[in-house]
């Protein structure tokens, strides 16, 4: 293995199973270029920009100013540029290939959205501009709100939440405020076992005791268990529909009625709206609050902590408690309600600095308008068709834990891998070698070794056929006993198996320079 002078391996692929053994002097492999840590590339005195020394200023930090150097590496501009371009080329992205991550709706992001979001007058808005100078932007937010209310059949929408989980927080805070306004302090929230982890986390953050409701054999929530848990201390239920097993909760209206009967509210996790867009209106199902992940259903790049937006549609019962600020339209044009007084006196307050994720609003509205009502409906139809195409294409090799047609994602368990020595994780690693981002794994928790595949509507039949072919090949290889291949995968990725637990639990986030040694300069000068 090649090591640089800091002891880091620089060789990207040390294929050690005897098949191939490649060693290059640089550690690069063709177009796959290694990049040492940027700190390792630094060289004292090297600079990117030549600027005059700043004029001395009076220190007003009361002794808090830094005494030593900041500890950043000294680099030239091309070095910095190459470093980040090299890193960016190791990214997997929806723009690079098929990205079937279940529950995440990684669909194509139309370029028109990006173009519109960058238009002068939109891209350079400032949230502190006087409202008289941003009438168009407020109208855009209002327009988007109108589309969202129409699509969901709900009377109100809170636009400010910044992501799905933030939207859940908004919805549950509205539910809590509504109970409090009624003089009640309810203590429990019911959440099905298959729920996305953010649901119980949100309920707990709002001070509720979370109670899990088991699933039936067919993957839907067990109504009898639900009825047993209901009571006057239940603040509400948080249900995902379609649920995280990729199934439509067929008893959803009954669930709504049951929770309303005990005075609770129905929170619907709407992250999977992509599956029912234009086909079902959550407002008709008795929903009181539901977040919409604009970054999933209405495209816009997301993942890796990237920007999102999670507007929350609200029923008449919860609308008065919506967070500020929000846009209103009156005789003199568009305005913002920024104080919890007057018409907003019941608002539970503010949950974000400004009015919402404007860039996401623009992209989502562009997406809706470019598709139109018929196009939005077709999205849901094709998303469900594609998921079922994958399900049927793999069903003789992978077992579906729940019978019948799925919605927008196909769920499999690991029962056909039993006895092969290959786990869901190993299969996923081999998918990386085939050039695919793996599906969602081990979620939902109710299914053993779960594999949740969401192709989305934007993939062609050719892409799906190729993916199904690759999966079938891997599953045959596992069945034939080629276990070592899987245990060693990924063989061709820039990095191979990492200790994922250690990386998550003990991340090394700070660079500690090694003690200087005599005559040493940089990684590459040492090698020359
Ligand atoms: C993505 C997702 C969330 C959370 O949304 P974020 O925008 O990532 O916070 C919640 N529930 C479900 C079912 C999801 O798929």
UniProtKB/TrEMBL annotation:
GO CC terms for this protein? cytosol; glycine cleavage complex
Q: Name all Glycine dehydrogenase C-terminal domain ranges.
A: 381-474
Catalysed reaction(s) here are:
N(6)-[(R)-lipoyl]-L-lysyl-[glycine-cleavage complex H protein] + glycine + H(+) = N(6)-[(R)-S(8)-aminomethyldihydrolipoyl]-L-lysyl-[glycine-cleavage complex H protein] + CO2
What the entry lists under InterPro entries is as follows: Aminotrans_V_dom (IPR000192), GDC-P_C (IPR049316), GDC_P (IPR020581), PyrdxlP-dep_Trfase (IPR015424), PyrdxlP-dep_Trfase_major (IPR015421), PyrdxlP-dep_Trfase_small (IPR015422)
The record's section on Pfam families has: Aminotran_5, GcvP2_C
Give the EC number(s) under which this enzyme is classified: 1.4.4.2
User: In which domain of life is the source organism classified?
Assistant: Bacteria
Q: Which UniProt keywords apply?
A: Aminotransferase, Oxidoreductase, Pyridoxal phosphate, Transferase
- Matching Gene3D superfamilies: 6.20.440.10, Aspartate Aminotransferase, domain 1 (3.90.1150.10), Type I PLP-dependent aspartate aminotransferase-like (Major domain) (3.40.640.10)
For this chain, one GO molecular function annotation is:
glycine binding
Q: What class of enzyme is it?
A: oxidoreductase
Please provide the Gene Ontology terms (biological process) for this protein: glycine decarboxylation via glycine cleavage system
Q: Where is this region: Disordered?
A: 504-528
Q: Where is the Aminotransferase class V domain?
A: 183-303
Protein function: The glycine cleavage system catalyzes the degradation of glycine. The P protein binds the alpha-amino group of glycine through its pyridoxal phosphate cofactor; CO(2) is released and the remaining methylamine moiety is then transferred to the lipoamide cofactor of the H protein.
Protein name as catalogued: glycine dehydrogenase (aminomethyl-transferring)
